[in-house]
Every structure is written in structure tokens, then in C-alpha cells.
Amino acid sequence: xxxxxDRANLDPAKSYIKVKKVNxxxxxxxxxxFVRSYRMGSGDGMTLHWEFNLDGVxxxxxxxxxxxxxxSELTWFVESK
Length: 81
Description:
The protein contains one helix and five strands, in the order H-E-E-E-E-E. By secondary structure, it is mostly beta strands. It has a single domain (2-79), classed as SH3 type barrels (Roll), CATH 2.30.30. Strands 4-3-2-1-5 form a five-stranded antiparallel beta sheet, with no helix packed on it. Strand 1 (15-22) and strand 2 (25-40) form a beta hairpin. It is globular. The protein starts with a helix and ends with a strand. The model has no long low-confidence stretch (mean pLDDT 91).
């Protein structure tokens, strides 16, 4: 559970790549420098939202906070090199 909470705690000094697995296929998409994250809702319906700055354009990514037991369908972010 801690890993699911920690994915909200990104470093605003770093840029990230979004990692998502859909139907067994993993995709990686550059999203830019982390701006902020926030949660909405409560319990099983809670969602997690991230804002990123990619070349001066602010975008928002969102996902379920908890997901299934394995969490394999959840969005993750890795530091961009």
C-alpha cells in the first residue's frame, strides 16, 4: 500500500515518464517536470491526480488511488534521464 501512496510524492525538480500497463502491454510516455499531485474522493473511489509541465504546457494525469490487489493496472512514473 505504501508504494501506491508514494507515487504521489514525486520530486518537482525532476522530469518523469508515465508507465502504464494495458492488456499486458507496457507503454511509456514522457510527461515532463512534476508540478504537483492531489487526491480526490475517499475510500475505494479515491483518485490520484498529477500535474506536469512538458515544454511549457501543463498536463494532468489521473488514476485510481488503490486499484486491484496486484495494482498491475495502475499508473507509475519513472525519472526521465
